[in-house]
Design a protein that fits this description.
3% strand, mainly alpha, 2 domains
């Protein structure tokens, strides 16, 4: 026994005096730092799922991730926007890889997805480089989607992939003349939905998705109002009607009933189905043609911008406009101040040029 202790003491560098104390063996090799999971691939191992996803690693990623987006309150449009970029990322092949099919892409398990798009295998870089011809705003949106997915998978976003800075763009609005032409085209359109859609967006500031989802049970014509249920960000809000809006809705209701609507949506097609956002944009294109303005100038969102700037020019405060538009942050609403300032400069410029012309004459 003593001999064995002497061997241990000799090997550990301790003396007999310290034998009664705890012994910590001396390290003979270099100290190895334990690498983070995100960097394990560089050291011969693959990335690992976070604990919250381990028990779901065998499930199809598409359904699992979509459920996560819904849990976070992401709107349907945001989910669609995310998927456009993410599917392209997942399909992007590394050198020597075969191109995967749509079925293979969407049926991957969460574990297989992580192995395919883990941040340091080069796929992200190739995908980002493939967007060289895209606008900064498009690249920024797609990188945001990829960043969200990478974080959900418990990985770290590569520091060298930075979102591009997009120039500050003011919301587009129609001029007074263009707006008059659109209203006139809607009023005389053969489509009974045209006047109602244009009037409602201009008078309420509803998003096109909110307008299409609006149901009769959420409309109170006596109170001149409607409740938007589960709007952008999963929020409810009150929108107000003018007399013009109420009159347009009342004129539309008999036509709606003749179409035998399937559900309670206010806006329905000729077959009784709920009107979709794409149908509204096609309607905008027709009105643009009839008003003889470029199609790109007229969208439901442009009319929403006209609603906001109109309120501001008539003296409404930013907080009230924010609530009517359903903006989460007043910083989003504040951009309309710059539009009004720009409008003011144009009015001043026209006024001063008239004064100059009169003085010359």
């Amino acid at each position: 026994m003593v001999a064995r202790w002497r061997c241990v003491l000799r090997d550990t560098g301790c003396t007999l005096a310290s034998a009664g104390k705890a012994v910590t063996p001396m390290r003979t090799g270099p100290y190895k730092v334990r690498q983070k999971a995100v960097q394990q691939r560089l050291y011969g191992e693959g990335p690992e799922l976070p604990p919250r996803l381990i028990h779901r690693g065998h499930l199809p990623w598409l359904h699992t991730y979509t459920t996560q987006l819904q849990t976070e309150g992401k709107s349907v449009n945001t989910q669609k926007s995310y998927m456009i970029g993410l599917r392209h990322l997942i399909e992007t092949p590394l050198p020597g890889e075969d191109i995967i099919t749509e079925f293979e892409r969407d049926s991957m398990s969460v574990e297989q997805l992580l192995e395919r798009i883990e941040p340091f295998n080069g796929r992200l870089d190739i995908w980002v480089n493939s967007m060289i011809d895209k606008s900064p705003s498009t690249v920024k949106a797609r990188l945001a989607a990829a960043n969200h997915l990478i974080n959900w998978l418990g990985q770290k976003w590569p520091e060298h992939l930075v979102r591009p800075k997009s120039g500050k763009k003011l919301p587009r609005t129609l001029t007074s003349r263009e707006l008059s032409l659109v209203k006139e085209a809607a009023r005389f359109s053969e489509d009974p939905l045209a006047n109602l859609v244009v009037t409602m967006i201009l008078d309420t500031g509803l998003r096109v998705s909110e307008l299409c989802d609006l149901e009769l049970s959420n409309i109170d014509l006596d109170d001149h109002s409607a409740m938007v249920i589960d709007g952008k960000g999963g929020k409810d809000r009150l929108v107000l009607f003018t007399e013009s809006t109420v009159a347009s809705i009342q004129a539309w209701l008999p036509i709606r009933e003749d179409r035998n609507p399937e559900k309670e949506h206010l806006l329905v097609t000729k077959t009784g189905r709920a009107l979709q956002s794409r149908s509204v944009q096609r309607l905008m294109d027709k009105l643009a043609d009839e008003a003889e303005i470029p199609r790109g100038r007229l969208t439901p969102h442009v009319l929403r911008h006209n609603f906001a700037t109109g309120l501001l020019e008539r003296g409404a405060d930013l907080v009230s406009i924010q609530r009517l538009l359903g903006h989460a942050s007043i910083a989003t609403t504040r951009v309309y101040l710059e539009i009004s300032d720009q409008t003011l400069r144009e009015i001043y410029k026209r006024a001063t040029s008239i004064d100059v012309d009169e003085n010359i004459s």
